[in-house]
Amino acid sequence: MARRAALWTLLAALAASNTARAEKVPLSPEELRATATHVVVGQVTAVYTRTETSGDWKYTHYIAEVRVAESEKGDGLKKGEPVYARYWQRQWVGKDKQPPSTIGHRGLPAQGETIRVYLARNAYDGFTFDNKDGGFNVIGANGFEPVKPAGK
């Protein structure tokens, strides 16, 4: 009986911890492609960051400079040119318990990595509908996909 009670306590704790984060559900590759206005494969040549605190959250805003090797969807991005992909993460810094919410993008790329990136330009990006400034936002929480470079 004690084992059963311990199991129920563990399951309740896991359920509570999962609902507290309320992470965005990852999109399938088909959903990412359907949502994206642009899909490119390329090498990350640089990653730029800026951190700020707003209320009870500490935000890190990123821009990945990706040298386009192949444009799989969308107009205007040419092989060899850079595209600047915006994404973000946040961390709870408040004194109270973190409310249910997402922490932002996951599976962030590193400089030198070859990736497929699903982008939204002047369109819904999986987080907000007001992406109307002409920039490229990474789709959803999982809009990066590692790719093995050709010939490796």
Description of the structure:
- The protein is an alpha+beta fold and 152 residues long.
- The protein has a single domain (23-146), classed as OB fold (Dihydrolipoamide Acetyltransferase, E2P), CATH 2.40.50.
- The protein is 18% helix and 39% strand.
- The chain is built from 2 helices and 6 strands; from the N terminus they run ααββββββ.
- It has helices at residues 2-21, 29-35; strands at residues 38-54, 57-73, 82-92, 114-121, 136-138, 144-146.
- A 5-stranded mixed barrel has the order 1-2-3-5-4.
- The protein is globular.
- The termini are far apart.
- Mean pLDDT is 87; it is low at 4-20.
Give the radius of gyration: 18 Å
- How much of the residues is beta strand, in percent? 35-45%
SS-based structural class?
Answer: alpha+beta
For the record, give the distance between the C-alpha atoms at the N and C termini, rounded to a whole number: 55 Å
DSSP, total strands: 6
CATH top-level class: Mainly Beta
How can the largest sheet be summarized? 5 strands, mixed, barrel
Identify the overall geometry: globular
Number of domains: 1
The poorly predicted ranges are: 4-20
Helix % is 10-25%
